[in-house]
Design a protein that fits this description.
The chain has about 500 residues and is α/β, with parallel strands linked by helices. The chain has 16 helices and 15 strands. It comes from Nitzschia inconspicua.
Length: about 500
């Protein structure tokens, strides 16, 4: 065979012919390859052709497009399921047309209620898109969406539910009802009630039948203390910082008991520990705070306080008994109006006082010389966690160059840092802010936000008075580091 291409025709056995090619015929030459590449490279687009750039979508537009696609797919699946159910019903020959319509109605309602939320940064609204593609603009409730991460307000649990009556002590259930109804609301009062309830549980506690194989410390902690605390805080009302610190103290006291102690001796030691905690951390601490705060009082002072605080009540009563002449303005806010409780206590003690709503505070602030406030907790960065409205009083006082003193027991110090009232808070009953109407169906669609606490920045506070002395807000972290970690831990 020569190097040139040759065709060979051979006769087949049946008389036909076949053509054979050389292997070199299937391989293009190198020059041909180079030529084809140059032609493709030099090939220019036709004149007048405009290539549009690839559109770039924003994050909100991409999310909206994805949600529309999901809604379309869901609608398609729902329609297919409806058609399949109707065809199966027709094949079986069961029922009339009305029954078929009734069967498809739930699917239609499910299809209509499949909505998707798409963000619109231009107007700050929520757009609710149904499965048919029609969009309805609705104003977004910014308050509820902003505080949706907080534990929502719950109604009072059923005290006769079998899951509670079979596992909890009756005193635990009764105290939980008082927490949920607001009958017990002060931070010291809530903590004191919890510790007194633990004393009752300790008196009534008995080991199970197989007492030889059960550790009192573990059983009392998990089956009594933990279950009771979970019922109060999960089913009734979120716990305060004071309750969390006290509960941690009790758990640590139980764990520190010796395993071989007799039950009666262990219960006696634990009782003495709880009673000493109540005396030192609450009662004695309030008296010591009152003595430190009286060094800042002078005859003729016009004092301002907000709401009701047990330590403020002790301070004012002690100063009046010591003969200090002063006048007290009690600022208050709804819906709780706890300041009326302090006002009644001052009147019974014979202390001259006045009562003012929070919205009229600027009218009497010009005559105020000092502000004394209570606190629900002290954060490690010096900010004050107190009843909602405390920050407003401190802000107005700072604007008027009036010193603000915060009285707080050391067992309320938390190792957390909080800069605002959004990250951690508690939601109260929203119905308490609305006017009482017998027919609630005629009430307009109002979204209500009832916050219980707020955060006062340390810049608004002149000094913090504890049973250990008067310190600046910046020294709270130092005081926390010197305390026992089990007392400063926050649940």
């Amino acid at each position: 065979m020569t190097e040139q291409t040759q065709q060979q025709t051979t006769e087949s056995s049946d008389g036909g012919t076949s053509t054979a090619f050389s292997p070199d015929d299937a391989k293009p030459s190198a020059d041909a390859k180079k030529t084809s590449k140059k032609e493709k490279k030099n090939k220019a687009p036709p004149p007048g052709l405009v290539i549009k750039p690839k559109p770039t979508l924003t994050k909100a537009e991409r999310r909206e497009m994805q949600e529309r696609q999901r809604a379309a797919k869901a609608a398609t699946r729902a329609s297919k399921a409806s058609n399949q159910q109707q065809s199966d019903h027709t094949k079986k020959g069961g029922g009339d047309g009305n029954q078929a319509d009734n069967t498809s109605k739930p699917l239609q309602r499910q299809q209509e209620h499949q909505v998707t939320k798409s963000s619109q940064a231009s107007n700050g609204k929520e757009r609710i898109t149904n499965s048919d593609g029609a969009e309805k603009a609705a104003l977004a409730d910014n308050s509820l969406s902003l505080f949706s991460h907080l534990p929502q307000y719950r109604k009072m649990p059923d005290p006769y539910a079998p899951e509670w009556t079979s596992t909890l002590h009756p005193d635990v259930i009764e105290l939980g009802m008082k927490y949920a109804s607001g009958e017990i609301h002060g931070d010291n009062e809530r903590c004191r009630s919890m510790m007194l309830c633990f004393l009752k549980l300790l008196d009534d506690y008995v080991l199970p039948v197989k007492s030889s194989t059960i550790d009192f410390r573990t059983h009392f902690d998990h089956q009594v203390l933990k279950l009771s605390f979970q019922f109060w805080t999960v089913e009734c009302r979120p716990h305060s910082v004071s309750m969390g610190n006290a509960f941690t103290f009790v758990k640590s006291s139980v764990a520190s008991l010796e395993r071989d102690l007799p039950l009666d001796e262990a219960k006696m030691i634990l009782r003495e520990t709880i009673e000493r905690y109540l005396l030192e951390r609450l009662e004695y601490a309030d008296r010591a705070i009152a003595q430190h705060a009286m060094t800042k009082l002078q005859n003729g002072d016009v004092l301002l306080t907000f709401g009701h605080s047990e330590v403020i009540d002790v301070l004012l009563s002690t100063a009046h008994k010591e003969g200090t002449d002063f006048y007290v303005w009690v600022a208050d806010s709804r819906p709780l109006a706890h300041g009326k409780k302090l006002l009644k206590s001052l009147q019974n003690a014979g202390i001259p006082c006045g009562y003012v709503e929070l919205n009229a505070l600027t009218y009497i602030l010009q005559q105020v010389t000092k502000v004394f406030l209570g606190a629900s907790a002290l954060m490690s960065n010096g900010s004050v966690y107190g009843p909602v409205g405390t920050a407003a009083v401190a802000l107005l006082a700072k604007d008027g160059h009036v010193p603000v003193m915060v009285c707080c027991e050391s067992y309320k110090i938390s190792n957390k840092v909080q800069l605002e009232s959004i990250t951690q808070n508690e939601l109260g009953n929203p119905e308490a802010l609305l006017p009482k109407k017998k027919d609630k169906t005629n009430r307009p669609m109002i979204k209500v936000l009832n916050l219980v606490y707020d955060v006062t920045p340390s810049e608004f506070v002149s000094g913090i008075i504890t049973e250990l002395g008067i310190i600046p807000p910046t020294s709270v972290a130092v005081l926390l580091s010197e305390m026992n970690p089990q007392d400063a831990a926050f649940m």
